[in-house]
Amino acid sequence: MKTLRQRPLQIYLRPDQDKALRQLAEREGTSLAELVRRGIDRLLQEIPVEDDPAMRIIALGRSGKKDLSVAHDRYIVQALRKYHR
To answer: Whole-model pTM?
Structure first.
């Protein structure tokens, strides 16, 4: 079975957004999807590093837990669950 490298996403645009994106895509010779991906990348770059959930695992090694090398996945999941509450 082939694994998708990209995931589909359906969004609804206002007519003015649709028109502007289509014009931009034509002018740049690219697809609407590529423009949306670029926009998402720009938005994600604006997130402060300290708010990135992955950054919460950096100090995990100083946790004092002696089984960290064996149970690291469990501790990462616990840290991420706390973040998403």
So the answer is: 0.54
The first and second tokens of residue 15, run together, are: 């007519």
48 dihedral zone (left: phi>0; alpha: psi -120 to 50; beta)? beta
C-alpha triplet 12, 15, 16: angle, nearest 5°? 120
Q: Which domain holds residue 61?
A: 49-83
Instruction: Tell me, yes or no, whether 3 lies in a domain.
Output: no
- Please report the sign of the dihedral spanned by the C-alpha atoms of residue 35, residue 41, residue 45, residue 51: positive
What is the tens place of the pLDDT at every residue in 2-36? 666 888 889 999 999 999 999 999 999 999 999 99
Q: Is residue 71 part of a domain?
A: yes
- Integer Cα distance of 59 and 65 in angstroms: 12
Domain identity same for 40 and 53: no
Do residues 37 and 53 both lie within one domain? no
